[in-house]
Amino acid sequence: MHELSLIQSLLTIVEQYAGREKFSRVRSLKLSFGRLSCLDRKSLEFAFSVQSAATIVEGAALDFEILPARIYCFSCEEDIVLPGALAEYCPRCQGQDIVLSGGTEELKLLEMDVD
Ligand SMILES: [Zn+2]
């Protein structure tokens, strides 16, 4: 499971940061990823609950911001958020002259609340 190694590197980063910034407990973490990134929220939560045990992150609340799939439409000349996961047409003008412009972002740490 890809999520396990991602959470592992996230925890490593948080612990290095804790060493530098001298905090001893993390109260909450906010993560983000794109909805087309193949990451699964439930798997991330599971990996987190297993791997945070006995670390300074244990018991921290986990919050997610899931970034929507977006396309750039050359006819509308605009970035458009897709209502579903993927589309072959622009949902606004039905044009096919589109490129994917968002939604594949990998896991990122957005915010962290510490003691
Ligand atoms: Zn369009």
Based on the model shown, name its key terms.
three-stranded antiparallel sheet, elongated, 2 helices, three-stranded mixed sheet, binds zinc ion
* Bound ligands: zinc ion
CATH domain class: Alpha Beta
How much is the average pLDDT?
94
β-strand amount: 25-35%
**Relative helix content:** 25-40%
Assign the CATH architecture: 2-Layer Sandwich
Helix-strand sequence: HEHEEEEE
Number of DSSP strand runs: 6
State the end-to-end CA separation: 31 Å
Indicate the topology.
Blueprint: H1 2-21, E1 26-34, H2 41-51, E2 61-67, E3 70-73, E4 78-81, E5 98-102, E6 108-114
Parallel strand pairs: 1-2
Antiparallel strand pairs: 1-6, 3-4, 3-5
Helix pairs in contact: 1-2
This protein binds zinc ion.
Zinc ion (ZN) binds at residues 73, 75-76, 90, 92-93, 95.
Short description:
With 115 residues, the chain is of the alpha+beta class. Helix content is 27%, strand content 31%. The chain has a single domain (2-114), classed as hypothetical protein PF0899 fold, CATH 3.30.2320.80.
Q: Overview of this structure, please?
A:
- By secondary structure, the protein is of the alpha+beta class.
- It has one domain: hypothetical protein PF0899 fold.
- Helices cover 27% and strands 31% of the residues.
- The strands form two sheets. A three-stranded mixed beta sheet has the order 2-1-6, with no helix packed on it. Strands 4-3-5 form a three-stranded antiparallel beta sheet, with no helix packed on it.
- Strand 3 and strand 4 form a beta hairpin.
- Helix 1 crosses helix 2.
- The protein starts with a helix and ends with a strand.
- 19% of the residues are buried.
- The mean pLDDT is 94.
- It binds zinc ion.
- Zinc ion (ZN) binds next to loops.
